[in-house]
Specification:
Elements (H helix, E strand, L loop, with lengths): L12 E3 L22 E2 L3 E2 L4 H8 L3 E7 L5 E9 L3 H8 L5 H4 L3 E10 L2 E8 L8 E10 L4 E9 L3 E10 L5 E10 L7 H11 L1 H11 L9
Parallel strand pairs: 1-4
Antiparallel strand pairs: 2-3, 4-5, 5-11, 6-7, 7-8, 8-9, 9-10, 10-11
């Protein structure tokens, strides 16, 4: 994942203070304040007019909300310049996550049955945080282009979340990422974990942007 830096000075990154209520109202690009975005597995997303402007400008909305004990709820939204079907093919290519996301050093699909799969991911954090790994049970909903996962093993203590894709304007996709994570770093202060997380959240969207922009045969070796 990208090196830690001041979020305020990071191009393309905007921290949102918007809460996540039970429903969101915005119907077309012309009336964002009246369009309902139902998000399977993740409840709903709240966007203000300024959020929409930021997303249209290519910025990534990201924030962290402390949870119980060491669990942190992380959120990221960003627009990818590709239709949802193309983005779905990328975000569900779990075996190639190490080529898509800079914070993943190794990725494997250990088992799969229909729309349920088990994935292994070796995570790399910026210094001074150590590597961690997680084994996730993931359930896909391809009809709605959404999936959810939960951690079932690994040095990461908790990692549950979801990712949803929504049409955004013409041939664009809004990625909506939600997760609850405890990296299991007992001797690392919470403020440092938050700082690193906040600075690496935009890479979730940027990694997909970069990947879809590659030529069709441009996979890394």
């Amino acid at each position: 994942m990208p090196s830690a830096q001041d979020p305020a000075s990071s191009p393309g990154v905007r921290q949102s203070s918007v809460a996540v209520p039970l429903s969101l109202e915005v119907s077309s690009s012309a009336r964002y304040d009246e369009y309902v975005l139902p998000l399977l597995f993740v409840g709903a997303l709240a966007l203000t007019p300024s959020d929409v402007q930021a997303l249209d400008a290519g910025q990534v909305l990201s924030r962290i909300e402390p949870g119980p004990e060491a669990v942190h709820h992380v959120f990221a939204e960003g627009v990818v310049n590709a239709p949802p079907a193309r983005v779905w093919s990328v975000v569900t290519d779990f075996a190639d996550y190490y080529q898509i996301y800079s914070g993943i050093k190794r990725s494997e699909v250990r088992a799969r049955s229909g729309n349920t799969l088990m994935g292994y991911f070796l995570l790399s954090f910026p210094w001074p945080l150590p590597e961690r790994w997680t084994l996730n049970d993931t359930v896909l909903d391809p009809d709605r282009m959404r999936f959810k996962w939960q951690r079932v093993g690994g040095t990461v203590r908790q990692y549950d979340g979801s990712l949803a894709l929504l049409p955004w304007h013409q041939n664009e996709t809004l990625m909506v990422f939600r997760a609850a994570m405890d990296p299991g770093l007992a001797f690392v202060p919470g403020w440092l974990v938050d700082y690193v997380s906040l600075n690496t959240l935009p890479a979730i969207v940027q990694g997909v942007r970069d990947y879809v922009a590659r030529p069709a045969t441009g996979k890394a070796s």
